[in-house]
Design a protein that fits this description.
The protein is about 40% helix and about 20% strand. It is an alpha/beta fold. A 7-stranded mixed beta sheet has the order 6-5-4-7-8-10-9, sandwiched between helices.
Amino acid sequence: MNNALNALEHVSLGVMTQVLLHTQALPLRVWRSAGQINQALGTAPRHAWIVRRWLAALTRAGALGEDAERLAWQGIPPTAAVENLPGLYAELGFPASMAPLHRQVIACLPDLLRDQLALAPLLLQSGDPVTVLGAYQRNHFTAAINQALAARAGEVSAHGDVLRVLELGGGAACTTRAVLAALQAREKDYRFTDISPLFTGAAQREFRLEPGLRVGLLDLDRDFAEQGIEARSQDLVVAGNALHNARDLPRSLGQIRACLRDGASLLFSESIADNPAMLTFMHLLLSPPADAPLRDADEVFIPPDAWRQALQAQGFQLFEVWPAATDPLAAAGQRLFHAVGVSR
């Protein structure tokens, strides 16, 4: 699988190169700053961070050289063998829809970056929106993370007779299904939440017969108590690839800690570094709306040590990070975090 992952990264670097060359945003033998490259490409301000992450990825790969904050191509630029995407995605366990979706986005990247075209409507033309938007989470690496998270969820103790679980950012319910299977024999009050009615509606339909499961809207950036989540009411909070969406992460972590009883668990999965393939695909959905403030930082994802500090500051002890950096599963850049609420 790791060979396929490396090959997918190389294709994605080639896609970035193709856009920068074909639009003349960064021609051969020309030195330009990131700002000049975005200006030449005509990038919408809200997407400028994406192009800067492209430049960082290409620099790390040795395709670009840097001199006084200006960049130029080194050697022969990477090529984009997009015809290999179906085989690579299949080897990594993604659904068959993933490769044609990615190819569709690649063909439109300049227009997407210029905001002449929007990604969400483009994707939704391809079928059921929940299936389409959840496709990138269905792969061997994420499945392993979800199974590990579910196994740890099954070991969490309830404060009373009923295990009280809150899931944040449930999305297409990939994490939900794994956790519910692990808790099948437990009496539970499981609250599936997401900010989007699209996902809560789909969850309501799928899990309508699931004992002890409730579905509702919840915004990570609003006060949890105002949204019906009582203080110290939960035994477990679960979040699958969702917490990076918080606009004010310390505040959101504080809200999560407040709803957990002392000694209760927070189990969440997150990417810890850029994924070059997603930088030419789904990461465009992470750009702020056109009428919202621009991102404070280009980096979306947080390394484990920074998570440890952020959690500790809000009353958590980080108990485990899985898999270890030496594990082959770690190559995908995804981690499971298990934190416990401590008394203060």
